Amino acid sequence: MAQNERNKKDVTEKLRTGSKGLWIAFAACALLTAIWGIFQLITLVSARVSANAVPWWTAYDSIQRIFEAGFLAAMLLIAAFMFRRISFSGMPFEEKTIRSVRTIGILCIIQGLCSHLAASLLTLSPQFALTDLFPMQIIAEGMVFLFAEKMMKYGAMLQIESDETL
Amino acid sequence: MEKNHDMMKTSLLQDIRKSSKRILVFAIVFLICELISRPAEILYTYLMQKKAASGNSLSFTNYLNAIQFDSLPEQIIRAVMIIASIIALIVLLSRIRKSESPFQEKHGKILQIIAVLNAAIAFVHVIAQIVMRIVYGAFEPGGLLGYFSPRIFSYWLLANAAMLYFLAWVIRYGALLQQESDETL
Q1: Contacting residues for B167 by C-beta, under 8 A, at least 6 apart
Q2: How far apart, in whole angstroms, are the C-alpha atoms of residue B166 and residue B168?
Q3: 3-class state of residue A18 by DSSP
Q4: What was the ipTM of the complex prediction?
Q5: Phi, psi at residue A111, to the nearest 5°?
Q6: What residue ranges do the domains of chain A occupy?
Q7: Of A14, B65, B74, B177, which has the highest C-beta tally within 10 A?
């Protein structure tokens, strides 16, 4: 029992120190991604203003990049705040943390389903390859995060049990 | 109160098992798609490179083609890593389905392997791009940062790997809580 308590303290300490570095890295990445997305948007708008017509493949690529950057910046920012919370408390099974994991999962799936589809619809491009329209990797990642949310809910119940025992 | 808590735990466990079944099916479909598309992509690259290199020596256009269609070793390494990470995910999900608790030390280790593979996939493309340019003698000393642009270096994949690695530690913490809970009962 005492050994288990010591292990728990070790893991909590590792989670706390790990999250400290991660929240700064994720916040920086979110900022960079947002800047990159804005740069893509400005490039697309200025190309549309200076030229009468932008080729569909250029517009398709730009719209897809803007969508990707928007979603990624949002996900990275949510993750950064989640890590910041954990770096203070050291407790991963909290209501807000669980909600953050779920939001990241949902955003992942929306990004996977929408970014290529939106680019195809907005540019009326003839790109209809299913694997391009629905990138399975990011959808799978989203599903893993949604699954992790369920596991964390169970973990929260174990945490309550542990706190009550103590 | 105690009874209610136990009932909630049981229903959550059932929910976890059901969800793991759904994701398992998706992961298997994903694996089949990758097993078909990746070798096809590698074969296409091989044929294109063979066509490009059919002359006496690689011309500048052919060299550009070789870079444009990605290097063959890079594609093979990436394909192996992606398929390995999907297989690891399938193993993890089927283990969770069969085990009594989702929190086990081994589950954390498998998730760590998936995280490391994801991080490696993020770096493979950058390293391959740099190596390709060194091999073809087109390496520009000042242009190294260019290979770390978001289109070449996947920040999301690296961030995803960091999150999965973190989740692996969360599972380890959960395993300790589970052990404590079992000992109390």
Answers
A1: A148, B111
A2: 5
A3: helix
A4: 0.83
A5: -60, -45
A6: 2-165
A7: B177
Q: How far is CA B71 from the centre of its chain?
A: 19
Question: Which pair of structure tokens corresponds to residue A49?
Answer: 């203003």
How does pLDDT run along chain B (185 residues), one tens digit per residue? Answer: 567 777 888 888 888 888 889 899 999 999 998 899 888 888 887 777 777 666 555 555 555 455 555 567 778 888 899 999 999 999 999 999 888 888 998 999 999 999 999 999 888 877 777 776 666 655 555 555 555 565 667 777 888 899 999 999 999 999 988 888 888 76
Give the closest residue to A101 by CA, choosing from A154, A41, A56: A154
Q: What gap in Å lies between CA A102 and CA A153, rounded to an integer?
A: 11
Q: Is A7 on the interface with B (CB under 8 A)?
A: yes
Encoding tokens for residue B123? 């770096």
Count CB neighbours of A113 within 10 A: 16
Inter-residue contact B75 to B42 (CB < 8 Å)? yes
Interchain pair A150, B16: CB under 8 A: yes
Q: Which two tokens stand for residue A5?
A: 């308590």
The full 3-state SS of B4-31, as one line of letters, equals HHHHHHHHHHHHHHHHHHHHHHHHHHHH
Both tokens of A52, joined, read 């009468």
Q: What are the extents of the domains in chain B?
A: 2-184
> Buried b / exposed e across B18-41, counting CB within 10 Å, b at 16+?
ebbeebbebbeebbeebeeebeeb
Report how far residue B163's alpha carbon sits from residue B156's, in angstroms, rounded to the nearest whole number: 10
Contacts of A159 in chain B (CB under 8 A): 177
- Torsion angle, alpha carbons of B84, B89, B90, B93, to 10: 160
Chain B residue with CA closest to A158: the answer is: B177
- Determine the Cα–Cα distance for residues B163 and B145; give it in Å rounded to an integer: 25
Angle between helices B155-184 and B105-135 (to 10 degrees): 170
